[in-house]
Amino acid sequence: MTAVAVHQFAQCITCHAWSPDHSMVAFCPNNNEIHIYRSSEDKWERVHILYKHDQIVSGIDWSAKSNKLVTVSHDRNSYVWSQEASEWVPTLVILRLNRAALCVQWSPKENKFAVGSGAKTVCICYYEQENNWWVSKLIRKKHDSSVTSVAWHPDNILLATTSTDGKCRVFSTFIKGVDTRDSGASLASDAKFGEQIIQLDLSFSWAFGVKWSPSGNTLAYVGHNSTIYFVDDVGPSPLAQNVAFQDLPLRDVLFVSEKMVIGVGFDCNPMLFGADERGIWGFVKFLDERKIAPSTSKYGSQFSEAFGKLYGQKQVGNDAVESSKPRGGVHENCINCILPLEKTGDGRVKRFSTSGLDGKVVIWDLEDQEDILSYS
Fold first, then answer.
1. Which domain holds residue 165?
2. Number of structural domains, the chain?
3. In the structure, what pLDDT confidence band is assigned to residue 191 with cuts at 50, 70 and 90?
């Protein structure tokens, strides 16, 4: 499978998000700006540049129902942007952070959003109607290092996080007056705000992207040790699996269906993982068919492969190196973001987009792939 559309928007993109109708895309070109492009007659036209942050924008999410943008930045601030006529109007969210904000995501009901930070803190933000402002409640003293990713459970209460302390955690975010008890899953039915439901110590390296399956029954996250972790029955007795691979580490993941996950990262090529009829997860294939597989010499190693990528060489022996062949992939640098773009009637993702440090936004189509559909 190859990409159906490739758009070179900038030299580098830190994050991106789509409008509800997918006619516009917002991204940060590795600075303090948010650029918004609109598609018109197979061409992309820049329609807005949002200026408010002082440092690199590290996270963007576009709500599907309310058409609001939320952004976070290394300047420790967050803004909720509302479109009024032809202008985007920002509202400051007081995060009370002393370190950079690193990631953000709207909850499924869009009445809250979560912000992970370098302050070892997660901010759960919600709107106070009587005061007409966004406020935050903090989950403190639970992480030992920076929070790199957040993911909402479909119940709108549970929140999964990953951190550079190597752990994945699940918290209750129940807020009285915002949530109702009957909206929570059994795990969070009686839990108070900020209560830790489970801590997963599966990785011995930094942990990055985390996602729930569509049903919320399975959790997947990735480690910097070229391993992806799958956890079923999240709770007192979870069932965990890990899949280690020989390629470079992943940065983000996306559930395409209950039994299929796509991971993206430093190898510049989306990787497909699937679960068989027994529920055993494994690597299936790379999605970019144009990529040239790396050499697997007797003396090769993951480090030498990474070193060769950096300097355009590959290791062929203890001392000798030779020029590497062009990899030929759509992405030419680390992919740091993957988002669903279109779903089928039963909730499976059939199109998704990726963005990376090469400044590209790429759209991929999973339809008509028999080996992929077999895992759906």
1. 5-373
2. 1
3. confident
Please give the structure tokens belonging to residue 303. Answer: 């480090």
Q: Does residue 117 contact residue 138 with C-beta atoms inside 8 Å? A: no
> Mean pLDDT of all residues in the chain?
86
Q: How confident is the model at residue 323 (pLDDT cuts 50, 70, 90)?
A: very low
- What CA–CA distances, in Å, run from 364 to 6, 269, 295? 9, 12, 26
CA distance linking residue 372 with residue 376, whole number of Å: 7
CA distances from 225 to 1, 245, 268, 323 (A): 27, 9, 16, 26
- CATH number for the domain spanning 136: value is 2.130.10.10
- Residue holding tokens 């303090």? 32
Position 242: which residue type? Answer: N
**Residue 103 reports pLDDT greater than 80:** yes
Q: What are phi and psi of 66, to 5 degrees?
A: -95, -5
Per-residue pLDDT tens for 58-85?
999 999 999 999 999 999 999 999 999 8
- The CA R_g of the chain, rounded to the nearest whole Å, is 20
Nearest 5°: the CA angle 161, 165, 167 is 45
DSSP for 131-147? TTEEEEEEE-SS-SS-E
Q: How far apart are CA 363 and CA 365, in angstroms?
A: 7
Q: What is the pTM of this model?
A: 0.88
DSSP state of 327: -
pLDDT of residue 375: 60
Tell which residue, 58, 69, 188, 195, has the closest CA to residue 117. 58
